Amino acid sequence: MEKVGFYEICGIVASVCMILGYMPQAVHTIRTRNTDGIALPTFLMMGIGAFAFMLQGLLHKPDIIWSLFLTNLITTICSAVVFGIKIYNYYFRKK
């Protein structure tokens, strides 16, 4: 059995924290459709960053970094959903 090193533990802790940080906001936004408290540029940049980290985990050679890829896949999806709701609210509900 392979020992789990400090590197892997840091990745797992970061993964859990990222998902637990994004999910409540995404779930709240999906349920309420309220995006008034969300800064569009900030959430957009965080989504782009998560997408870039997802690609980094996927394209890492020789092996995929699964914790980096999966965590940022989830956060990218959450960011895209919240961003979509924010844009919808801004352009269709505010007018």
Description of the structure:
The chain has a single domain (6-93), classed as Monooxygenase (Up-down Bundle), CATH 1.20.1280. The N and C termini lie far apart (60 Å). It is built from 3 helices and no strands. The protein is 79% helix and 0% strand. It is an all-alpha fold and 95 residues long. It has helices at 6-32, 40-59, 66-93. The longest helix has 28 residues, at 66-93.
Give a short overview:
By secondary structure, this protein is mainly α. The protein has one domain (6-93): Up-down Bundle (Monooxygenase).
- The level 1 CATH classification is Mainly Alpha
> Could you say what the CATH architecture is?
Up-down Bundle
Distance N terminus to C terminus?
A: 60 Å
Any idea how many domains? 1
The assigned structural class equals: mainly alpha
Low-confidence stretches: none
| Beta-strand content estimate | under 5%
Number of helical runs? 3
Helix content: over 70%
Label this structure with key terms.
Monooxygenase; mainly alpha; 79% helix; 95 residues; single chain
